[in-house]
Amino acid sequence: MEHEAPSPRTRIRRKPQRGHYDTATVAAIVDTALICQIAFNQGDSVHCLPTACWRVGNALYIHGANNSRLTRTLLDSDCSVCIAHVDGLVLARSAFHHSMNFRSVVIYGRFVAVDAPEEKKTALAAFVEHVSPGRSALVRPPNDAELAGTAVLRLRLDEAAAKIRNWGVEDDACDLDIPVWAGVVPLRCTAGEMEAEAACTDFPQPSLPDYLLTT
Amino acid sequence: MEHEAPSPRTRIRRKPQRGHYDTATVAAIVDTALICQIAFNQGDSVHCLPTACWRVGNALYIHGANNSRLTRTLLDSDCSVCIAHVDGLVLARSAFHHSMNFRSVVIYGRFVAVDAPEEKKTALAAFVEHVSPGRSALVRPPNDAELAGTAVLRLRLDEAAAKIRNWGVEDDACDLDIPVWAGVVPLRCTAGEMEAEAACTDFPQPSLPDYLLTT
């Protein structure tokens, strides 16, 4: 580990050799995510909800309707945000040593509202760029009513921990002669054939980010 | 909606037309997941952690080291579990109407420990089958020490809500003449070329479940 955990609750206790706390590692995992899961408490219950996310600088951004439970509740209490990518199945010779390759980040903190109109516009344009680079200049930007109805929230990435497993099978020595295939099955999120609206088949197809490898 | 929400906290309030509460829909979404995210409270903080999961009957299963924080804490308090699949980018003519196609499930309840040895063995074999059908008969099964060191936890799917978006672009009528590609980019989790251990290249490759489409 190159860096120390930024807080006691981000310290990786289970398999600490998989932990990373540096900004670049955290940012790289966030940058390949379309969604995150957010844990928060509301109404005597803990909740875990998925929502789209993207990064600008040292912060994770989410958005939602201005009157939604999620965006209202998150401004009033701390939360925990998880992003997890499964990168492979690790198939061992023993059931016990089966594993998965993955990259995950857990972030702690409290979201703040992005209220300044220009900052909100910039953040929403960055979201469009995150899913299709170059697209924000091609589509109609949000109008005043759309901006007013949309909440944009920002969570600094200061209190975050990444966990990565990206290696092969770790079988016990006594199992190495078992005659079964062992190895890694890589997994990735892949874009399939684009489904254009009928009126759009002659327009150039959208660009896709590198993290969505095309088939 | 064919069914009612099983509890107030599972009722979908934001875009309720996307909500589903029937067992088959919930099970189908769980069955295409390798991991879930679990929200729980511990030590004055809410946490959101990813872990592998699978389904047997009407329950979601997870496992972990017997002495891990996650497995110990989950037996003592309610949690919320989220599974979310991103199935496509919905690229509209306006920034505002961009969306994603997805299938998600949120489950509420409390995990219970699977302690009976036979039930534990059966559950762990089902996990191996979930990642590679037919594989549990080929690999070395867990020995007594491995079983003793592994906690298996079960959460009934009774209090669960699914949310699905699986349709095309919904642009405003006034935007339909904007000359930009609009449509859906399908996304899926895809298995790449298998990376065999050096000693295993002559063994038959493992089978993969249908939800991991191969390239």
From TrEMBL, chains A, B:
InterPro entries: Pyridox_Oxase-rel, Split_barrel_FMN-bd. It comes from the Bacteria. SUPFAM superfamilies: FMN-binding split barrel. This is Flavin-nucleotide-binding protein. It comes from Azonexus hydrophilus. The lineage of its organism: Bacteria, Pseudomonadati, Pseudomonadota, Betaproteobacteria, Rhodocyclales.
